Hints:
This is Rho termination factor. One of its GO terms (biological process) is DNA-templated transcription termination. It comes from Cochleicola gelatinilyticus. The protein has 79 residues and is mostly helical. The protein has one domain. 47% of the residues lie in helices and 0% in strands. Helix 1 packs antiparallel against helix 2. The longest helix has 10 residues. The chain is globular and about 30 Å long. It starts with 8 loop residues before the first helix and ends with a helix.
Amino acid sequence: MAKSRIKNEDQYEALREKGYSKEKSARIANTPNAGEKGGKASPYEQWTKKELYEQAKNVGIKGRSKMNKKELIKSLRTN
């Protein structure tokens, strides 16, 4: 049996139950700090455009290279 490559299995399963695809669930569950709770992350508005771009890249948002900071924030919140 192959080893799982999912960093946060609980988050992956929760996303699958919400109807996310296997691929999208895996991308989100494998991002750095996946599933951390407690409000430790600062709001996206405080992130640099570069940081937002990297996060968008981590979760597989297409068209990110043409987005401005506001568009990146909206895509990250709705993706």
